[in-house]
Write a structure and sequence with these properties.
With 567 residues, the protein is mainly beta. It is built from four helices and 44 strands. It is 4% helix and 35% strand.
């Protein structure tokens, strides 16, 4: 792409003592670790070329962004169509979607993008990562609504989207997907006029979709559905938690049977598209053998907000968040309030185990120009703190991130923020919230220079064979070597994070595990060797690539990639 369009900014940035250290793997933020600071914002690019409506981080350190082909002209013009014909300055070619990129790959270290090819429209689709790091991308709009696409990242920048000849059984527009414990199989749930679920790949060639009565029960036709993009979380018992509108179930997808009906989340309003709150599964912890599973739902729209927005009235969104333990026998929503109302927001698990609430608006609902009053200040939520002290307000951005924005955590600990386009075309003038092509990074307080000597550095993973870049089987031990500029804090923890596919306020498949540390030995020169234990099963951690992070007293290292696999 022409550099004048992008204005890219420069990307800145043996004697062993055998002293056995205290090795604790549960989340425990150190008091004052943020130093009272609220984080910082960086502008990385002025023009990514496409709206970051959908984003996903690959294990090669690149980020896939894509929007919709139906928007026609994007911010990244092509000299030639993918069929080889030239794009000229004619009226037809200036508006022809095939003369523009609608997907790009962003290289984090180089701070550059390159165009990717899309053959059908992935607008409002879903995604999951397979065990080899391939992004499985499902559904979309129009001719793309039954399509299955794959993106397998590579190191030579020659990889691209590949579209399968196999079709879904049903149109999947505004559906959600979750990778399953069974190797490389995902479940796809819901979608507009699709009150069912199906598997990719299919269980058997003659199987189609399966009706899901729960989606019929939660549908609100007068308000645009309010059960689209349902929240999905894989419980560590292998069952699937499904939340839609205000209700939720625990579902045995193997037997097509509802295991539990959970209580309705208190309060009015709705949480799913187009009310568009967000949800996260809190970190799973080895100290309880990963058996305690707790989910959190935050934000959403008021009752009647979708219809009111169409008439130009933007109702105040929901301030409430609910937490509920879905394992065990007793289930109750524990409610608390964010500092301000919020919808269209993203919930991300940071390496510390804290939750970042970012992007969105305070009024209205999802949809074309249906929201107002941008939420410019991120919130930090610390699950381990006492009620009433869990939320803090972070540094404000100057860029509104409304409908069709997204955010993802990257290995160095920053959060990439992209997108926002409440207009049905790329529109930069004479609208309240123009199409947004700038790429930002939110830099959490734990990355401040004052923590330089506290931050674990030079992290490397050593496998049973003694080589690097290998794979770890479930329950197997492996070693992590890192360096500290000073004596370790009393709490050193190790987390493994499954990067999500993010779109429409949902971080699909996001998952963090607090791993068991068997031992830590401190050597000369600040070097430390720790022996860790991999998760016990694919129910706890579906096979694939995870970001492994060493957290010393609440200060995380740069993450390294590790792959958990079936035996």
């Amino acid at each position: 792409m022409d550099d004048k369009k992008h204005f890219p900014l420069a990307f800145k940035l043996m004697v062993v003592l055998f002293s056995l250290l205290h090795c604790v793997c549960f989340s425990s933020a150190v008091s004052g670790s943020s130093g009272g600071k609220k984080g910082q914002w960086q502008l990385l690019m002025n023009n990514t070329g496409v709206v970051g409506m959908h984003m996903a981080l690959t294990h090669h350190g690149t980020v896939i962004l894509f929007d919709q082909t139906g928007s026609g002209r994007s911010g990244y013009g092509l000299r030639r169509r993918y069929n080889g014909t030239r794009c000229r300055s004619t009226q037809h070619d200036l508006t022809d979607w095939s003369c523009y990129a609608h997907s790009v790959e962003y290289d984090i270290p180089l701070n550059k993008v390159r165009p990717l090819r899309l053959d059908t429209d992935p607008w409002c689709s879903s995604g999951s990562f397979l065990s080899n790091g391939t992004l499985l991308q499902i559904g979309g709009y129009g001719r793309g609504s039954r399509r299955i696409r794959y993106f397998r990242s590579c190191e030579n920048s020659r990889c691209d989207w590949r579209q399968s000849k196999t079709l879904l059984s049903h149109d999947r527009w505004y559906a959600s997907s979750q990778i399953l414990p069974e190797k490389d199989r995902a479940i796809v749930v819901g979608g507009r006029q699709a009150l069912s679920y199906e598997f990719v790949p299919k269980l058997h060639s003659n199987f189609g979709s399966f009706d899901l009565p729960f989606l019929h029960q939660t549908l609100n036709r007068n308000e645009g559905g309010n059960n689209l993009y349902p929240f999905l979380h894989l419980s560590s018992d292998g069952n699937l938690f499904i939340f839609a509108n205000r209700d939720s179930i625990l579902f045995n997808y193997r037997q097509n049977r509802v295991v539990k009906n959970f209580p309705r989340i208190p309060g009015a309003g709705s949480r799913n598209y187009p009310s568009s709150g967000s949800s996260v599964i809190l970190p799973l912890d080895h100290t309880n053998r990963f058996r305690k599973v707790e989910v959190m739902v935050c934000g959403g729209a008021a009752s009647g907000a979708h219809q009111a927005a169409k008439q130009g009235r933007f109702l105040k969104g929901l301030s409430s968040c609910g937490r509920m333990v879905i394992s065990g026998k007793t289930h109750k929503w524990n409610m608390e309030n964010m500092p301000r109302p919020r919808l269209l927001n993203d919930l991300l698990v940071l390496p510390t185990g804290d939750i970042l609430i970012i992007n969105g608006a305070r009024r209205g609902s999802a949809g074309w120009n249906n929201a107002a009053d941008p939420s410019l200040q991120p919130y930090l939520y610390k699950p381990k703190k006492t009620l009433g002290r869990r939320f803090s307000v972070l540094k404000s951005t100057k860029i509104a991130r409304m409908y069709h924005s997204s955010a993802i955590l990257i290995p160095d600990g920053r959060v990439l923020v992209a997108g926002s386009n409440p207009n049905n075309k790329y529109t930069f003038r004479n609208v309240r919230y123009p199409t947004e092509l700038r790429l930002q990074a939110f830099v959490p307080a734990y990355m401040d220079r004052q923590y330089h000597n506290t931050r674990p550095g030079n992290v490397s993973i050593h496998y049973a064979s003694g080589t690097y870049g290998g794979r770890v089987r479930y329950g197997e031990r492996f070693s992590v070597r890192f360096r500290l500029g000073r004596k370790p804090s009393k709490t050193v923890e190790f987390s493994a994070y499954a990067p999500p596919f993010t779109t429409h306020s949902i971080s699909m498949n996001q998952r963090m595990l607090k791993l068991r540390c068997r031992s830590m030995v401190r050597g000369e020169g600040g070097w430390i060797n720790a022996t860790l234990e991999a998760p016990p099963s694919p129910n706890v951690a579906p096979s694939g690539y995870y970001m492994l992070t060493v957290v010393n007293g609440g200060i995380p290292s740069t993450s390294q990639w590790i792959r958990f696999i079936h035996a």
